[in-house]
Amino acid sequence: MCGIAGMVNLNGSPIDQGLPRNMIGMLHHRGPDAIGTYTDKHVGMAHARLSIIDLAGGQQPMHNEDKSVWITFNGEIFNYRELRQDLIRKGHTFATQSDTEVIVHLYEEEGEECVRSLNGQWAFAIWDANRQRLFLSRDRLGVRPLFYTITGQTLLFASEIKSILAHPAVTRAIDLQALDQLFTFWVTLQPRTIFKNILELPPGHSLRFEHGKMLVQSYWQPNYPSCVVPMDEQDCADRLLELLADAVKLRLRSDVPVGAYLSGGLDSTVLTALIKRFSDAPLKTFSVTFEDPEFDESAFQKEATDFLKTDHAEIRCSYQDIGRVFPQVIWHTEKPVLRTAPAPLYLLSRLVRDHGYKVVLTGEGSDEMLGGYDIFKEAKIRRFWGAFPESKIRPLLLRRLYPYLQNLQSQSPAYLKAFFHVRQDDLSSPLFSHLPRWELTSKTKMFFSEAVKSELHGGDVYRDLKGLLPSDYLKLDGFSQAQYLETMFLLPGYILSSQGDRMAMAHSVEGRFPFLDHRVVEFAAGIPPRLKMKVLNEKYILKRAVGDLVPLSIKKRAKQPYRAPEAKSFFGGDTGVARHEYVDKLLSANRIQKDGIFNPDSVQNLVGKAQKGQAIGIRDNMALIGILSTQLVIDQFINNFSGRHESGTD
Amino acid sequence: MAQIEGEIRQFVIDNFLFGQEDVQLENDDSFMERGIVDSTGVLELVAFLEKKYQIKVEGKDLIPDNLDSITNLRRFIGNKLPVA
Q1: pLDDT per residue over A390-413, tens digit each?
Q2: Does position A635 have pLDDT exceeding 80, yes or no?
Q3: Could you say which of A418, A599, A609 has the minimum Cβ distance to residue B64?
Q4: Is the peptide bond before A230 cis (omega within 30 degrees of 0)?
Q5: What CATH number corresponds to the domain at position B9?
């Protein structure tokens, strides 16, 4: 796990050798163990290393036998041993034991198609000197980040945007269309990022730059079948467990100790149980607990750790803690967020690092692949009800949704029906499952300034998103469509980035995701929806597959998504004033007016509500967090970006 | 009744539209369909009614027919308030 950066001069002019080093300097947190650079006539590559495999020999950038192929690589190739053996049989000579070198020789052997043989999580750049070709690739699901831009005659790439912004020729500005998307979908639609003209290489894509021409193309997509293929339930469960166990086994390959996140939910408990199958060594597990009981899962965590007998460490998170670290969190997310949920994960990765660990296995991806999220349940009920809108019985199922949201649970049936309304037009919409969520989120845009609203007038974020859907999307069943939207948009754009890579790497910790092993993903895509969610029992097939590997109480518990306290993290106490000085400063009318994105009067009204403890609804909270995090992005990356050293870390 | 209507309108503008008085809000506009209230907003609205008009909003009253527009609210409060 590491950070990468680099550049190619499109017109063949020489590289300023100091620039790659300056860019990689911004990524010290991703790779504190070593820095390496390589510069050719008109290409520069840099690498910040976090040593995990081949501690002595894995320095980068790395090259092939005759130094005609160079690589700078962030990530892990879990099947590197098997690939290495195969390449040796084909006559390749290895100078190291690292997985990095495997990619170099595999590229020599298979060219750009080499990525199809990789089982892992990666972002890398290869410079092929003979062909004068730059080849960038990102893993299938988007575990590892990779950004790029063209400025003047230079193509720049890096693991994080701050590294690109450190190049003196790059201008820093907010992309308002991206902001419009983010305040609807929680994510920008790739390749767009929140910064104008800085793009993200989408998951499952590669980029080739050769002879002045750039080509970005997809090499992988999730393969949801257009018609359901029946499966025997037990065979399906057995195969899922077999694949998942192998995914765990591969992800235990490391030259440093591997720990695990243990939230008290089904997914992380299953992973922890599987890890213990492969190792007798004491397993270190880590979790977040909350002072606020509404969010705390420590009772379930204790059940899991007692059952699995792990050596457990936890960090207790208060409102104050979240507010305190939020600026650093946004320094690492590099985009606005509508939830505070990344902040406790930032604290958690610090706990991991303080215990001397660099690698953790974690359960992300299970909810997307196996149908765990409430949004799948919500869509199923809404579709069932929409098929017979006059039914008095069907809408009663709405009560089964979101049991952890007290304000929703206290609503009358009439209001529940109104909240989860199904318009006849909606039933045929390709975005049916997500419309209530996105429509609710969109209401936060009422806080945009008149200038921003005017700039965005005529835009249509739904049209933008529909334009990214594959041609066979409409042939998918409703459940698979919902899974596709979660997997292709929210997973890479928020879960794996703002809550994943960025929070872990802030403290030089590598997350590994067995549920995102592409073999698991591809198998799960083909599982009939009725086995993923049996009636309204989410992740049914996983529960069946794991048998007694996990405590019954954890298998049977109601799904509780990971959440964190929001407005109370910034305003509270007896007086309701801001808990931290930066909150007052960035949300002041003057500052809001000066930065220009939001309406100062509306923001003051919202702040007033938060101070009185009244900003307790989903929409108000999303607006408050979205505005504050946008202001932090502007403050840290537009107004006060030095581009010379790390800032914002604690 | 005109006074109640004005008070409700002001509450909605202050709390759900965050002071944006230029937003067009007709008396019959559905708060739900316009996205003006979410599930918490309904509870905020009820708390306002109980405090401002000293009325008790029962569980059976929590329906859009009573609470989902300025017109509905005016009628609902009128029915709840003691006859002068």
Answers
A1: 888 888 888 888 877 777 777 888
A2: yes
A3: A418
A4: no
A5: 1.10.1200.10
- Total count of domains within chain A: 2
Angle A291-A296-A298 from CA coordinates, rounded to 5°:
105
Among A2, A114, A236, A317, the one annotated catalytic: A2
Residue A114 designated active-site: no
pLDDT (average), residues A500-507: 97
Chain A contact probe: residue of B21, B34, B38, B67 with most A CBs at under 10 A: B38
Asked if the Cβ–Cβ distance from B38 to A605 is below 8 Å, we say no
d(CA A133, CA A342): 37
pLDDT, mean of residues B53-66: 90
Q: What is the ipTM of this complex?
A: 0.82
Picking from A199, A218, A237, the residue at the C-terminal end of a domain is A218
Instruction: Say whether B20 and A443 touch across the interface (CB within 8 A).
Output: no
Domain count, chain B: 1
Instruction: Give the domain range for residue A91.
Output: 2-218
**A28–chain B Cβ distance below 8 A for any pair:** no
Estimate to the nearest angstrom the gap between the alpha carbon of A535 and the chain centroid: 29
Asked whether the beta carbons of residue B41 and residue A619 sit closer than 8 angstroms, the reply is yes
Per-residue pLDDT band at A208 (split at 50, 70, 90): very high
Map residue A474 onto helix, strand or coil.
helix
How high does pLDDT run on average in chain A?
Answer: 93
Helices (H), A433-505: 435-442, 450-456, 461-466, 478-485, 502-505
pTM, 2 dp = 0.94
Q: Which domain holds residue B76?
A: 2-80
